[in-house]
Amino acid sequence: MLLHINTENPNKRHINTIVECLKNGGVIIYPTDTIYGLGCDIFQHHAIEKISRIKNVLPQKAQLSFICYDLSDLSKYTKSISTPLYRLLKEYLPGPYTFILPASKEVPKILQSKKNTIGLRIPDNNIAREIIKQLEHPILSASLPGEMVEEYTDPEIIHENFKNLVDIVIDGGIGGTIPSTIIDCTKDEYEVVRMGAGEFEL
Q: What domains are defined for the chain?
């Protein structure tokens, strides 16, 4: 299903359709403030496994991250946040950034890596955040498989390529081609793992 949603004012009925799909173990492709991503409910194991199959990787090695609604939502899935780190997150989020943080016990076991870390995001995108708000917990985020990022900007082309693999493709307009900037905050000195759409200076 290809579902057209207005980014500025997402249709509540359409959002409810997506949330019901996620609760039932569905997989979606949805817009963020960077590139389109694969998503599912973080508590639906079969859906997580399905995304891993689409990407042809193990769940623990899929470099999956959580899309959160706000900082209080984000804080549930990481261990205690220091005041300086909280200020940093508050400065940059919502925005095109993924912060790697120590995973808390709230992170489902299927997603816990040996490093015991988790990537957390709060995108500046009304559609993604409205879905999470209605779902009442984060959705999983994974990049679409393959190297042809240019093909993944147009929702209609995305739908044509993935309609047999996912339940819903959300058309929230043309997406970007540059992924989020990834910052590893698990070390004493923070490290930019990938410089992407968001500018970041240590």
A: 2-194 (3.90.870.10)
